[in-house]
Design goal:
single chain; alpha/beta; 11-stranded mixed sheet
């Protein structure tokens, strides 16, 4: 933890904790994020963006624009989740492995009633996944469609109980509402979405996202990179956000925003 920076709490002004020094158990940082509602499924999104709005750098992956401050929050958000939800494109580009909670955060996770294992759930309309996730004794949950070309092979390879069919209204699409509901039915009520931008936009459009944790990296990268949400249409209506807190370290800003859901 010595190489991770301290985080200053800029907002709210009345926060009882103003300076979050790195700790092995991250007790203060865990407490700051551990107040999700107890009832129902809670969907938290975590994304990173440059100051000029890019969701990736020139490498086309988020690893080129995040850093140690973002890593502190990233580790804590995973430790607080029951399941990490990502799109198949993100899983491939970012080379997702089976997920583990760092040993030093497991006691705090257990005290909050989270399961020992952190699940990974991948959304894929085709049913195709990286071989690195299939050739493991801890395969992900897969949210896919009944028409997925790889559906039968996927069930045979990772087990039918790991495959969730959630057909959307558009043929060949995954319904995010049905998918998130299915995760909740499995007891995975604390959902952390790590993107990509298309999946996050679909979750927002379906009125499923409760909060957004967004890191602003102090970089200007230009280029054609997309934003943290991507849909061909505007959100209708735009979703208002309420700032819960704002952290800072070495020019990096880390915001936590409550999403005002349409059904609220």
């Amino acid at each position: 933890m010595a190489d991770l920076p301290a985080l200053d709490v800029l907002l709210p002004h009345d926060s009882p904790v103003r300076h979050l020094a790195p700790r092995d158990d991250e007790a203060e940082l865990m407490a700051l994020f551990a107040d999700a509602p107890a009832a129902g499924v809670h969907v938290r999104a975590n994304m990173v963006s440059t100051v000029d709005g890019a969701a990736t750098g020139a490498s086309r992956v988020s690893g080129s624009i995040n850093g140690p401050a973002d890593l502190r929050v990233f580790r804590v958000l995973r430790a607080l989740a029951d399941v990490v939800l990502v799109g198949a494109g993100t899983a491939r580009a970012e080379r997702y492995p089976p997920l583990d909670v760092p040993a030093e955060l497991r006691a705090a996770r257990s005290a909050l009633g989270r399961p020992d294992a952190l699940e990974l759930a991948i959304v894929t309309a085709s049913g195709e996944l990286p071989e690195s996730l299939l050739d493991t004794d801890r395969p992900p949950l897969v949210l896919t469609t009944a028409s997925a070309p790889a559906l039968d092979g996927l069930r045979a390879r990772i087990g039918a109980d790991r495959v969730i069919v959630a057909d959307g209204a558009v043929p060949g699409s995954v319904d995010p509402r049905a998918g998130v509901a299915a995760l909740g039915e499995r007891g995975l009520r604390n959902v952390l979405s790590e993107g990509g931008p298309t999946l996050l936009a679909q979750l927002v459009d379906a009125d499923l996202v409760d909060e957004l944790c967004l890191t602003w990296s102090p970089q200007l990268v230009g280029g054609p990179a997309g934003r943290v949400t991507h849909l061909p249409t505007w959100f209708e209506p735009a979703r208002p956000l309420t700032l819960r807190h704002l952290l800072h370290a070495d020019g990096v800003l880390l915001g936590r925003w409550q999403v005002v859901r349409l059904g609220a």
